[in-house]
Design goal:
This protein is α/β, with parallel strands linked by helices. It has 10 helices and 8 strands. Helix 3 crosses helix 4 and helix 5 crosses helix 6.
Length: 281
């Protein structure tokens, strides 16, 4: 074989090997129990951090955050909610307790039995329920862009409208600007990625549990990671969790972000998470 041909083959093989290494770094695992199957995206090595998405959205929203946490030395687990990807299980007559069990099983099987649980928006309810039901598995809880104990009902409508694919692009962008994205941040990145078919199931699961059952988030250390311009948690509610639960709660506020937070300021989110988690015992 001519030298040039051999060289080209070596280059192709080298890049193929790099591609295989990159794809192997982020992999998908299936966690099964009873009649439930949860697909979990896994990457990195080190102490486990679980990332839970907001209402009717997938854990793919965390791609940049997961990359940052992996680089910081963490093993990142991203369970896909039931009804997304290869995750499946009962979708009626369930509650936040069931979603918490999904997370707990992922931690047991893929997180060496202990993890920090991060929940964004709706996902913070699941995170708090997990810490309440399975305290042995939870090293700490992060509630990211978590709503105040009470918030305006028009915000819930905006969440529905943002993910309603039957509405016009303009109507959905208006909802995204109103409820999710701070002025100057690009709301178009969330025109896609919605799974409206699971929205009602997730809301029903939350409604099936009293707020006071999950509100405290167990007894583990808790980071209230807020977005400075989040209408779900205005400045008047900034210290709501701290006042109720004292020194167990830390508060961090990320500027130039609203309720979406994760796509708005991924680096700031990674920095805040890394700083807080590395202080945990």
């Amino acid at each position: 074989m001519p030298l040039l041909a051999r060289s080209l083959l070596l280059v192709i093989a080298m890049y193929a090997g790099v591609g295989m290494a990159v794809s192997a770094e982020r992999r998908s695992e299936l966690v099964r129990y009873d009649n439930v199957q949860i697909e979990v995206v896994v990457e990195g090595e080190g102490p486990a951090v679980v990332l839970l998405p907001s209402l009717a959205r997938d854990s793919d929203d965390y791609d940049q955050v997961a990359e940052g946490l992996t680089a910081a030395g963490f093993r990142v687990l991203r369970p896909k909610p039931r009804g997304i990807g290869r995750s499946s299980g009962p979708m009626t007559n369930i509650s936040l307790h069931d979603f918490a069990r999904d997370v707990a099983e992922a931690v047991e099987k893929l997180g060496q039995g202990r993890a920090v649980i991060v929940g964004h928006a709706y996902g913070n309810w699941v995170a708090r329920m997990t810490a309440t039901d399975h305290p042995r598995l939870v090293r700490g809880v992060v509630i990211a862009a978590a709503a105040a104990k009470q918030y305006a009902p028009e915000l819930s409508k905006a969440v529905t409208d943002a993910g309603d694919l039957s509405l016009s692009k303009e109507a959905r962008l208006a909802a995204l600007r109103f409820a999710f994205f701070a002025p100057g941040n690009d709301p178009t990145v969330w025109l896609t990625g919605w799974h409206p078919e699971i929205r009602n199931t997730q809301r029903a699961a939350a409604a099936a549990v009293r707020q006071d059952e999950w509100w405290a988030g167990g007894t583990a250390p808790l980071l209230d990671l807020q977005a400075a311009q989040d209408p779900f948690k205005p400045e008047s509610a900034r210290n709501e969790m701290k006042q109720e639960f004292g020194d167990r709660v830390s508060v961090a506020v990320i500027p130039n972000a609203s309720h979406a937070l994760i796509p708005e300021q991924p680096k700031a989110v990674v920095d805040a998470l890394t700083t807080w988690i590395k202080r945990l015992p």
